[in-house]
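Q: I'm teaching a short session on how sequence maps to structure, and I want students to see two examples side by side rather than one. Could you give me a first protein with its sequence written out and its structure tokens following it? Keep the formatting plain so it prints cleanly on a handout.
A: Of course. Example one:
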Amino acid sequence: MKHEWRKHEKELYVPKDKPQLLTIPKQKFFAIKGKGNPNNADFSERIGVLYSLAYAVRMMPKNGFTPDGYFEYTVYPLEGVWDLTEEGKNSDILNKDELLYTIMIRQPDFVTNEAVIKAFEIVNKKKPHPLLKEVYFDEIEDGLSVQIMHKGSYDDEPASFEKMLNFINENGYERKSMVHREIYLSDARKTEKDKLKTVLRYMIKTK
């Protein structure tokens, strides 16, 4: 049976629109770092490179290589970890040009270094791109976290962050840092702003 993250990993990817406490296990990702406004073309180029690698893994059996433990699955959604430069943190107004980000796409557990090398070989041959050299493979464990489903424009996210912060403070936790994670369940190019769905997450610890 095909593994579909929306159905089989609902706790991680389909939270309610109120804060939810959970522990995120170690996960594997293709990732790339960047700086600046996500509305710029550079951001889209980085997304494209990540997806080319993600689909290279997904389609490997058709390219003559089947990793051990391979199973049919739906490609995972784009995720982003967001921070600000020091200048951005010292400003009272959000300047998107001062954003620092790492965007990534999760990979199934069967993906090993061998499969990663193969994915790069496939993409370098079929769809080469200068940004490929900036992509890296990593294992990340968010651990204890609070997340919420945000529905609507990205610019309206502060209201959902406030709900999470209230939950964190009321339940004896604190954020590990100002950094937050976003998981994009909607394609912003094809979805109306008021219908966008984005998972927002803070890593936390007990006070």
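Q: Perfect. Now a second example for contrast.
A: Example two:
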Amino acid sequence: MVLPDGGAPYGSPRARTWRAFRRNPLGTVSVAMLALLVLVAVFAPLIADYPSGYGTEVLSGPSAQHWFGTDNLGRDIFAQVVWGTRTSMVVGLGAAGLAIVLGVAVGVSGAYFKRLDTPLGMLVDLMLSLPVLPLMILVAALAGPSVSTLVVVIAAFSWPEVARVVRSQAMPVVTLSYVDAAHVIGGSNRWVLFRHVLPAVSPVITVSVVLTASRAVLSEAGLSFLGLGDPSSWSWGAILHNAQRSGALSSSWWTAFFPSLAILLLVVAATLCALAYNDARNPRTRQDDHR
């Protein structure tokens, strides 16, 4: 029996992976949670008004009027978390995208071009040995607080991990017979890379995007909490920074609980999504439907 999705009795590897992923409840819940956060970021103006100015209810607890309570200036924390989702997601996805581009380029180049493997490997090892947090703080402080600065700074210290993982996956691929055959028939290096090597490492890239984005959100929250975020925009880290600066952390639990919960949900959802995807790709752990 030949199925239309790949010609194999039980579908293509991609179709089998997708079926296994859908059967994993952790995978579906994590994807739904990530999709919800993306929707909140996109439709933030429709969900809550932009938090600005001052309010009359200062440090008011969660209520029907203010679901997440208010801060020391009477601003609604629910609105801050909603609008902070947009900034945090932009920084996370932007930094992850830039880090993936740099990491994949370095990792694939090191695996494919043997003469570049040693110097690129030394560069990756050097970057991984650096104290990341102090350097991120230093660079962000010198460059000035802005969303674009956070994206570049976080990506600059995130790509080495991506490069190491991609290189380890690309090394066995470049030695396979069909890659050698592509060279024999006159295929250019660019054609071989885009036709054979990159598709082979694309599952690793998919997982790296999710995990790098979640780590970027954590890094943004940490830098913003230290006062190095963009002062003109809300983010989850900026909410925590304002709560800490005003002294509300010790007296008003809601000022820190809800932005911290948002960060936790994103990181947990991204981690579970990556784990479920890896399990779905692994033939030893998935159970294909052979009916």
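Q: What should students look for in example two?
A: Point them to this: The chain has one domain: 13-45+75-281. Also worth mentioning: Confidence is low (pLDDT under 50) at residues 1-9.
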